[in-house]
Amino acid sequence: MQTPAFPQPVRMTDDIWQIDLLEQGLRYRTGAYVIVDDKPTLIETGSANSHDALLAGLSAVGLTPQDLAYVVVTHVHLDHAGGAGQLMAKAPQAQLVVHPRGMRHMADPSKLWAGAKQVYGTKTEALFGGVVPVQSERILVREHEQTLSVGKRTLQFFDSPGHAKHHFTILSEVDRVLFAGDAVGILYPTDFTGFPFDFIAPSSSPIDFDPAAVHNTLDMLRELPFDWVYHAHFGKSLKHEAIDHTRRLADAFAAMIGRIYTPDITTQDVVEELRRLIADDLQRQGKTPLDMSVLDIDVVLDALGLVYYEKKRRGSNG
């Protein structure tokens, strides 16, 4: 029986379920997806702190870690893959499927952890828990356009940088679904924000944001045969809405930091400007937002990413 403290998984299609991973104790924030096929497949593990919520969700759909054939992480940021080693220890028959650039970080997460500490400092362990390495022989790399058969489905993997260089997306053509991680924006449901509407915005990660790569990724994905985007944060949106909103706001983010950047700019300066930008964009859509600080779980990181991007861009351009 599932512990009542954990939310029930949501059936997305006949045999695909979303598990709320309760990231940082928050509902409707981060989700994993379980494909119940001949070879049961999990997409995203969340952080180590989400381990109990993940196990409860698997149990609720009739699975144990030992049933999993594949554990897929779209990219190796801790809120997506930090708990992979912990789960793999309980799933001895499973393979961990990663982007080529992610393999070394799953086998030896020391640099991944050090990078997270540069961003989160002393809060890192409290936010995410620890990280456990995965034996390299249990890691399966999927290159761009390679496939993986899990039963009636053949999953296809696409290199999808822009949010992170180590990011792929996963197409299930039979379901007309793209498992997008963070590559096609973040979907903010009303249950998370308290706003009377859902909306989508991009995520400019602290060291990898690249608006040109975002454009290239979205152009590629637009040509693929799917109707729905399954976001890690959080839930599903229509393909054209996810692509269009992510593209527009990624451009707006880049233009904004280019306009306001100075060498002594503070993170808080950018946070305040991002709040205004997102609020103004929503107003133009006829949507009236409420307290924008509810978005700061992402906006603060977005600000760090934009400052890093603009500083690097100006440096590379002389």
Automatic annotation (TrEMBL):
InterPro entries (UniProt xref): Metallo-B-lactamas (IPR001279), NDM-1-like (IPR050855), RibonucZ/Hydroxyglut_hydro (IPR036866), ST1585_MBL-fold (IPR037482)
Xref: Pfam families: Lactamase_B (PF00753)
Residues of the Metallo-beta-lactamase domain: 29-233
Lineage top rank: taxon: Bacteria
Name used for this protein in its record: MBL fold metallo-hydrolase
Species of the source: Alicyclobacillus fastidiosus
